[in-house]
Specification:
Shape: elongated
Structural class: mainly alpha
Number of helices: 19
Radius of gyration: 30 Å
Oligomer: single chain
Order of helices and strands: HHHHHHEEHEHEHHEHHEHHHHHHH
CATH topology of the largest domain: Fumarase C, Chain A, domain 2
Strand order of the largest sheet: 1-2
CATH class of the largest domain: Mainly Alpha
Length: about 450
C-alpha cells in the first residue's frame, strides 16, 4: 500500500480501512490535472530558488515520462496506491530518486486536491458548454427551417393558441442559452488558484502563488488559505447548473415522448434512437428520451448529496469532502452523455408537419383571436370572453370548429360577427399578427433567429 504519510504510524492501516479511505478508483480521473498542477508547482519552486534548475528539469522530465507512459498504456494506475497524488509522486521517486522527493515541497494534499478538482471541473465546464453549443446549433437550424410550420401551443397540456415549430424550438433555445451563461458564470467565479494554501494555513516557504496561478491560467490566487482547501461551492454550483440542464432536457424529452405517441404523431424518432418490443412487433419506443428523463433524478441526487455532505463540516478540510468526487464525476458524465444523445436524436427526428397543422386547427386555438375580433369591433373584453365561451359550447355540441360555422350561426350568438371573421381567425392570421418581440410570427422569429445566430458566433 503506497502511502505518503507513514512516518507518524507504527503499524500499517487495516486493509479494510485502507480500502475505505482510498480514492484511487475514482480520482484517477484527475491524473492529467495532477500532473499539470505538479508541473506548475515545480516551475514556481525553481523560480523562487527552492529547487535548483537541475532538480526542476529532472522532475519535469520524470512527470512527462509518467504522463506519456500512462497515456500509452505502459504504466497502469492501480489500487496499490491510495490516491492519484501518491501514484504520481511514488512513480516519480522510483524513476528519478531524491529529486522526486522534493516535488511536494510547500504543498499539502489538501491544496493539491483542491487544485486538481478545480482544474478538472474547469475542463469539464468547457466540454459541457461546447456540447450545449452543438445542441443550440441544431435548434437554430430547426428554427430557420420552420417559421411557417404551424402547431398548437399548450398550457396545462391543453391546446391554447396556435404557434409555430420555430417558436417552440426557440423556447428551448433560450433555456439552453441560459444554461451556458450559468456555466460561464461558474467558470469565472471558481477560476482562482488554491495551490500554495498548504493544509490550511499557508506555508513558510516563499512561494509565488500568483506565478503558479498564471502558469495554470487562473485569474489569480485565492485569498484565504482555509477557504481554499475547504471550498466546494463551485461544485455545488456546477451540480445545480447541471441539474437545471437536465431539467430542461427532461422537459424536452417529455414533449418528444408525448409527440411520438399514437395520439399525437407530431414526430417520428429515427430508428437509431428508438427500440422495439420483445413481444409487440408494432412498437417503436422512445427509449433515449425516456432514459434522459430518468437520469435527471441521478443528477439531482448528486446535488442533494453534496449539499448534505457539506452542511455540517467545520473549517478547514475534512475527509467527508472526498465524497465530492464520485458524485461530481458521475453527474458530469451523465450530463455530457445526455446532451450528446439528445442532440443526435433531435437532429434526426422527423416532424409530421401536416399533422401538427391539423392539430393546431382543432381544439379552438383561435378562440382568443375570435374574442379579440369582437373587442376590435367595440365589444368590451369581458363580454367578448363570455360570448366566445358560449360559441365554443355551441361548437362542441355541433362537433365543429369555430371557422366551420356559417355566418348565420355566428350571428345567432353575436350579431357583431361579419364575413371578415374567417380571415381574422385563420391559422395564418392568428400567428402572423403576433409581431411583438418574442412572439411567434415569422417576422418576429426572423429577428430572434438573427439575434441568436450572432450570439452563437461569439463562441
Amino acid at each position: 500500500m503506497a502511502q505518503l504519510w507513514g512516518g507518524r504510524f507504527t503499524k500499517e492501516t487495516d486493509k479494510l480501512v485502507y480500502n475505505f479511505n482510498a480514492s484511487i478508483s475514482f480520482d484517477q480521473k484527475m491524473f492529467k490535472q495532477d500532473v499539470e498542477g505538479s508541473r506548475a508547482h515545480v516551475k514556481m519552486l525553481a523560480k523562487q530558488g527552492i529547487l535548483t534548475d537541475d532538480e526542476k528539469e529532472q522532475i519535469l522530465s520524470g512527470l512527462e515520462d509518467i504522463y506519456s507512459d500512462v497515456l500509452n498504456g505502459k504504466l497502469e494506475i492501480t489500487d496499490e496506491y491510495e490516491d492519484i497524488h501518491s501514484f504520481v509522486e511514488a512513480n516519480l521517486i522510483d524513476r528519478i530518486g531524491e529529486a522526486g522527493k522534493k516535488l511536494h515541497t510547500g504543498r499539502s494534499r489538501n491544496d493539491q486536491v483542491a487544485l486538481d478538482m478545480k482544474l478538472y471541473t474547469r475542463d469539464e465546464i468547457c466540454e459541457i458548454n461546447g456540447l450545449l453549443k452543438e445542441l443550440l446549433e441544431v435548434l437554430i437550424k430547426l428554427m430557420e427551417e420552420n417559421p411557417d410550420t404551424y402547431m398548437p401551443g399548450f398550457t396545462h397540456l391543453q391546446k391554447a393558441q396556435p404557434i409555430t415549430l420555430a417558436h417552440h424550438m426557440g423556447a428551448y433555445f433560450e433555456m439552453f442559452k441560459r444554461d451556458r451563461q450559468r456555466l460561464d458564470d461558474i467558470y469565472r467565479r471558481m477560476n482562482y488558484c488554491p495551490l500554495g494554501s498548504g493544509a490550511l494555513a499557508g506555508t513558510t516557504y516563499p512561494l509565488d502563488r500568483e506565478y503558479t496561478a498564471q502558469l495554470l491560467s487562473f485569474e489569480g490566487a485565492t485569498l484565504n488559505s482555509m477557504d481554499s482547501v475547504s471550498d466546494r461551492d463551485y461544485l455545488i454550483e456546477l451540480l445545480a447548473a447541471m441539474s437545471t440542464i437536465m431539467m430542461h432536457l427532461s422537459r424536452f424529452c417529455e414533449e418528444i415522448i408525448i409527440w411520438n405517441s399514437n395520439e399525437y404523431r407530431f414526430v417520428e424518432i429515427d430508428d437509431a434512437y428508438s427500440t422495439g418490443s420483445s413481444i409487440m412487433p408494432q412498437k417503436k419506443n422512445p427509449d433515449i428520451a425516456e432514459l434522459i428523463r430518468g437520469k435527471t433524478g441521478r443528477v439531482y441526487g448528486a446535488l442533494v448529496s453534496l449539499l448534505t455532505t457539506m452542511k455540517g463540516i467545520p473549517l478547514a478540510y475534512n475527509k467527508d469532502m472526498q465524497e465530492d468526487k464520485e458524485l461530481t464525476f458521475d453527474a458530469i458524465d451523465t450530463v455530457k452523455g445526455c446532451i450528446a444523445l439528445f442532440t443526435g436524436m433531435i437532429r434526426t427526428i422527423k416532424f409530421n408537419k401536416d399533422i401538427m397543422r391539423t392539430s393546431a386547427m382543432k381544439g379552438f386555438t383561435n378562440a382568443t383571436d375570435a374574442a379579440d375580433y369582437l373587442v376590435n369591433h367595440g365589444v368590451a373584453f369581458r363580454d367578448a370572453h363570455g360570448i366566445i365561451g358560449r360559441l365554443v359550447l355551441y361548437c362542441i355540441d355541433q362537433d365543429k370548429a369555430i371557422d366551420e360555422l356559417s355566418l348565420d350561426e355566428l350571428k345567432a350568438i353575436c350579431p357583431v360577427f361579419e364575413e371578415d371573421i374567417y380571415e381574422a381567425i385563420s391559422l395564418e392570421t392568428c400567428v402572423n399578427k403576433r409581431t411583438t418581440i418574442g412572439a411567434p410570427s415569422p417576422d418576429a422569429m426572423r429577428e430572434i433567429i438573427k439575434i441568436n445566430k450572432e450570439y452563437l458566433k461569439l463562441g
